[in-house]
């Protein structure tokens, strides 16, 4: 046992002496949080638009002013001909051209109907849809104002309440995802590479002839990363509490315990990868494909699972981060306890046991 | 033998922080000789050899290799030398020929010359059976011989060998030294570090380094006589002990 | 010049000899494209709604059936109390709760005014906004029907003006998100492959010690860097061609632009990215370090590049930061060329900026790479 702890301490030194890695290790969660908290947003803000007003009467000017002062849009250019639309889109900055038909006001007051074309650059489909929706919303509001003289009877008032995230901030969605990603990265990627490194450099053989048992060697390599990952998890939680004012509604102890469970799961994945290759670059690429991609895309981190095609939804159920993210959301944002999350926890536990036994067997075979 | 000096070192000092790895080294190497640079592990041999090869800049002192200054003309030095490092330096996932082709190419040799010379080399080394194998599949002794052949492939004026026979069996070591003699016969000056003292006896002249300093330098025969011993091994032992006493 | 050729040949032999590497390099794009292009959608396809109908009137039932008629809503109506419904939301089983209070019908008919509650799980703020908007629109629709059923007097003329907005979605009338994502993913792919492999390759030579043997040769620093850059440049361009073919075959992405222009721009961009990778490699001693640093930088650059979300929506400081983000330029241009058929004059700015970038970064890499210690 004493030999084992000596080995663990040596591994610790290895990692902590490497200042560059440590910097990235702790800089990463910070920067990721800032990025997702402030930068990655789907809200429309100062989207650049152009106006082609074929009528130019008081009503069209009013509408243009309403749109310009909404804060969502910034009128970049005023066009004079529909021939300009194509070229302005090709330059790639203007996202929407608003076209008022000729004699707009006259038509509106005489026939009660007038048309506005909203031409959007839909190469970014999501963005185009949002922009078109926002614009029509502003126009609809203006329209209602025009008709305000007449009030409707039998009115149904809808009161909406936003649960868990009253201000609908984007960061609520991202924090659990970032946590999953960082823990995955530190635990799985770093361990797999550090074990494969020993193999590549031939130092693994030296360790294997030492009196340490193979299981102890792997444990020793893995321990520092458990510790580091855990610190990182705590760091992320503190960041979300302080910088983003995110609540931890539920039990913080439970949250930390679940983090630990997920870390062990990620580590067993890392060990599995390291058992399958002797080349660091292969280990890295494998980790990228097999770990990072699913963590980012098949976990509900950025894209909600329920919108995906059924096959991918099934695939998502097999991804550990998906369950972890559910758990973190539950504890941090919804304030629920193990009584609601026992199923997710059991799945993580089952996955861990499965992965550990597979990699243990694989390692034994390769090492003997 | 002509006494043209191909390496001249005067008061070479190399410090890493407070640690003095090379403490006022002064020696020269004559053209065409096999110069043994002996010493225990950590005596400062590798540090000195790296300076001579232009891999590392000296702290102070005068160093010239093949007529070029080790401070400013490192790239010119590199054109005239070959180097075989302590660390195994061939690409394990390439075949012997691919390794030769790569290094030969870097020295600007033409494809034709590389091909001709490597064929001759393989024949001379009786290397045919390994020709198309990857380096990692070839036994260590053969790899070392190949690494040496790569280091002299571009026919440099001087070849630096840093512990070339580490971990090699006695028979292969013997064969390895045959290769060194052959290179010397072709007019290549050989600068070799080793801690096998029996190998020192193969050198024309040998210096013995202890704790960053050159304790003595002469032909092996003279050294053995001077210290009244029977082998270089005893000479080295004596010098190392004396140094430690001081 | 000949020296560079020898280095390139050696790198290619090593790349092709590594049995496990090549499949990854070329299988990765297919997997990524298939998964990403399908997974990366923000379109709501299914909304789990829980209904708490305390009124149980005809009106309330017809409102619920209105929701039932929409293909988006999957309705669970077995909940009797708001408390139960909230528990379902806690468990993640409900995206939105529709609460119709008692006396809904009576209030509507007698008081001319009735209240309904929508409770939305807003952890995903974006989706919550959409769910709220859709649900409110359905309720408003229902309201209109109620009114037209009950009110028989026509609305006085001139009081009802209606401005019609007609949206046109250019370049992508079906609003297929895949068209947007596939070029973006391709951009990420070639960036990662190029930057990582170039970066780790150089560090690998350091780690196994062969760099020493190279440093002792008279090789020119520029030749060495060029020899390390070009193989991965070719590899990444091949990857791009491969990925484009996959995108075309699997997703039938429209390709409006000029292919040589696209490859020309990608070639320039890759020089910058590979230069970056080599520059990073001069800071690392082990592949683990190199990978970690490269991953970190790539991550930040990719996130900020507008891969998922539009750059224009980012705060000003982020947009300023994006001026030094090569990936942001590439994301913009690859989409412009593929989806809109933009020509050289539309992207000339980006070409100039990236060219300047390349000169700077490659010189930095050469300067940082030291043959002596």
Task: Write a structural description.
The complex is a heterotrimer of chains A (368), B (246) and C (373). Chain A has 368 residues and is of the alpha/beta class. Chain A contains 14 helices and five strands. Chain A has a four-stranded mixed beta sheet with strand order 2-1-3-4, with helices on both faces. In chain A, strand 1, helix 3 and strand 2 form a beta-alpha-beta unit. Chain A is elongated. Chain B has 246 residues and is an alpha/beta fold. In chain B, the strands form two sheets. Chain B has a six-stranded mixed beta sheet, sandwiched between helices. In chain B, helix 3 packs across helix 4 and helix 5 runs parallel beside helix 6. Chain B is globular, with a radius of gyration of 18 Å. Chain C is elongated and about 95 Å long. Chain C has 14 helices and five strands. Chain C is α/β, with parallel strands linked by helices and 373 residues long. A four-stranded mixed beta sheet of chain C has the order 2-1-3-4, with helices on both faces. The two termini of chain C are 26 Å apart. The chains are: A alpha/beta (368), B alpha/beta (246), C alpha/beta (373). Chains A and C meet through helix 2, helix 4, strand 4, helix 6 and strand 5 of A and helix 2, strand 4, helix 6, strand 5 and helix 7 of C.
Mean pLDDT of chain B, nearest integer? 87
Proportion of residues in extended strands of chain C:
5-15%
Rough outline of chain B: globular
Fraction of residues in helix of chain C: 55-70%
- Strands of chain B, total number: 10
In angstroms, what is the radius of gyration of chain C? Answer: 29 Å
The biggest sheet of chain B amounts to: 6 strands, mixed
Intertermini distance of chain B: 38 Å
Classified by CATH, the class of chain B is: Alpha Beta
In the predicted model, the low-confidence regions of chain C spanning at least 5 consecutive residues are none
Number of domain units of chain B: 1
What's the N-to-C terminus distance of chain C?
26 Å
CATH fold label of chain B: Rossmann fold
Integer tally of domains of chain C? 2
- CA-atom Rg of chain B in angstroms: 18 Å
By DSSP, the count of extended strands of chain C is 5
The succession of helices and strands of chain C, N to C, reads HHEHEHEHEHEHHHHHHHH
Question: Mean pLDDT score of chain C, rounded?
Answer: 85
List segments of chain B where confidence is low: pLDDT < 50 over at least 5 consecutive residues.
Answer: none
- With strands numbered from the N-terminus, the spatial order across the biggest sheet of chain C is 2-1-3-4
């Amino acid at each position: 046992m004493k030999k084992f702890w000596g080995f663990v301490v040596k591994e610790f030194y290895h990692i902590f002496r490497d200042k560059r890695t440590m910097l990235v290790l702790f800089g990463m969660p910070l920067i990721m949080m800032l990025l997702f908290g402030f930068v990655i947003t789907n809200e429309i803000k100062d989207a650049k638009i152009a106006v082609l007003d074929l009528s130019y009467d008081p009503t069209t000017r009013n509408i243009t002013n309403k749109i310009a002062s909404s804060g969502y849009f910034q009128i970049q250019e005023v066009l004079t001909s529909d021939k300009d639309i194509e070229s302005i889109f090709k330059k790639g900055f203007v996202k929407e051209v608003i076209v008022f038909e000729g004699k707009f006001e006259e038509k509106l007051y005489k026939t009660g109907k007038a048309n506005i074309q909203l031409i959007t650059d839909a190469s970014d489909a999501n963005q185009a849809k949002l922009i078109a929706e926002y614009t029509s919303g502003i126009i609809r509001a203006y329209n209602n104002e025009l008709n305000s003289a007449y009030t409707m009877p039998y009115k149904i008032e809808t009161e909406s309440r936003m649960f868990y995230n009253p201000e609908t901030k984007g960061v609520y969605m991202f924090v659990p995802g970032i946590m999953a990603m960082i823990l995955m990265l530190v635990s799985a990627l770093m361990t797999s590479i550090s074990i494969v490194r020993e193999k590549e450099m031939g130092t693994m053989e030296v360790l294997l002839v030492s009196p340490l048992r193979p299981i102890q060697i792997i444990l020793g390599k893995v321990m520092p990363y458990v510790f580091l990952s855990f610190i990182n998890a705590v760091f992320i939680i503190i960041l979300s509490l302080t910088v983003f004012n995110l609540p931890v509604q539920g039990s913080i102890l439970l949250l930390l315990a679940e983090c630990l469970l997920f870390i062990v799961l990620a580590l067993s994945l890392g060990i599995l990868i390291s058992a399958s290759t002797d080349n660091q670059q292969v280990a890295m690429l494998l980790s990228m494909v097999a770990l990072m991609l699913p963590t980012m895309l098949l976990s509900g981190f950025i894209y909600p699972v329920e919108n995906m095609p059924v096959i991918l939804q099934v695939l998502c159920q097999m991804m550990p981060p998906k369950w972890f993210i559910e758990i973190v959301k539950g504890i941090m944002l919804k304030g629920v306890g193990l009584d609601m999350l026992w199923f997710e926890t059991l799945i993580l536990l089952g996955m861990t046991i499965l992965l550990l036994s597979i990699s243990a067997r694989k390692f034994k075979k390769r090492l003997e | 033998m002509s006494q043209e000096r191909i390496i001249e070192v005067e008061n070479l000092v190399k410090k890493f922080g407070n640690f003095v790895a090379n403490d006022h080294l002064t020696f020269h190497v004559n053209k065409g000789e096999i110069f043994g640079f002996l010493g225990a592990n950590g005596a400062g041999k590798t540090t000195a050899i790296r300076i001579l090869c232009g891999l590392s800049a000296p702290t102070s002192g005068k160093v010239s290799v093949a007529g070029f200054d080790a401070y400013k003309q490192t790239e010119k030095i590199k054109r005239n030398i070959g180097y075989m490092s302590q660390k195994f330096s061939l690409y394990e996932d390439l075949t012997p020929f691919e390794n030769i082709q790569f290094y030969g190419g870097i020295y600007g040799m033409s494809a034709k010359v590389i091909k001709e010379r490597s064929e001759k080399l393989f024949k001379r080394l009786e290397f045919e059976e390994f020709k198309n194998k990857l380096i990692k599949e070839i036994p260590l002794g053969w790899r070392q011989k190949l690494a040496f052949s790569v280091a002299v492939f571009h026919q440099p004026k001087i070849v630096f060998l840093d512990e070339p026979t580490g971990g090699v069996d006695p028979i292969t070591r013997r064969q390895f030294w045959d290769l060194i003699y052959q290179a010397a016969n072709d007019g290549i000056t050989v600068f070799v570090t080793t801690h096998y003292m029996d190998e020192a006896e193969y050198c024309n002249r040998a210096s013995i380094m202890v704790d960053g300093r050159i304790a003595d330098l002469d032909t092996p025969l003279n050294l053995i006589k001077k210290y009244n011993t029977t082998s270089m091994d005893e000479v080295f032992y004596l010098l190392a002990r004396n140094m430690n006493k001081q | 010049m000949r020296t560079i050729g020898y280095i390139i040949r050696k790198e290619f032999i090593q790349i092709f000899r590594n049995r496990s590497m090549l499949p990854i390099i070329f299988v990765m794009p297919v997997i990524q494209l298939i998964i990403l292009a399908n997974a990366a959608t923000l379109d709501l396809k299914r909304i789990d709604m829980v209904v708490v109908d305390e009124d149980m009137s005809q009106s309330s039932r017809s409102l619920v059936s209105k929701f039932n008629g929409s293909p988006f809503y999957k309705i669970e109506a077995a909940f009797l109390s708001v408390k139960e419904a909230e528990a379902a939301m806690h468990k993640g089983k409900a995206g939105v709760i529709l609460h119709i209070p008692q006396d809904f019908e009576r209030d509507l008919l007698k008081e001319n005014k009735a209240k309904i509650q929508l409770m939305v799980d807003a952890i995903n703020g974006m989706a919550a906004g959409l769910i709220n908007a859709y649900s409110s629109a359905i309720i408003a629709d229902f309201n209109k029907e109620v009114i037209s059923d009950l009110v028989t007097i026509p609305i006085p003329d001139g009081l009802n003006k209606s401005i019609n907005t007609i949206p046109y979605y250019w370049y992508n009338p079906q609003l297929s998100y895949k068209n947007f994502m596939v070029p973006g993913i391709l951009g990420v792919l070639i960036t990662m492959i190029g930057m990582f492999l170039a970066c780790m390759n150089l560090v690998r030579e350091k780690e196994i010690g062969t760099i020493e043997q190279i440093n002792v040769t008279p090789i020119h620093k520029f030749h060495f860097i060029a020899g390390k850059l070009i193989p991965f440049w070719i590899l990444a361009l091949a990857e791009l061609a491969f990925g484009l073919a996959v995108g075309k075959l699997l997703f039938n992405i429209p390709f409006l632009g000029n292919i040589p222009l696209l490859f020309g721009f990608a070639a320039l961009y890759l020089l910058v990215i590979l230069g970056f990778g080599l520059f990073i490699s001069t800071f690392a001693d082990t592949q683990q370090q190199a990978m970690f640093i490269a991953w970190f930088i790539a991550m930040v650059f990719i996130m900020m590049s507008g891969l998922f979300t539009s750059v224009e929506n980012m705060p000003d400081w982020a947009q300023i930061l994006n001026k030094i983000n090569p990936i942001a330029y590439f994301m913009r241009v690859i989409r412009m060329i593929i989806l809109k058929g933009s020509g050289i004059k539309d992207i000339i700015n980006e070409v100039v900026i990236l060219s300047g970038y390349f000169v700077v970064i490659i010189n930095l890499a050469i300067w940082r790479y030291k043959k002596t210690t």
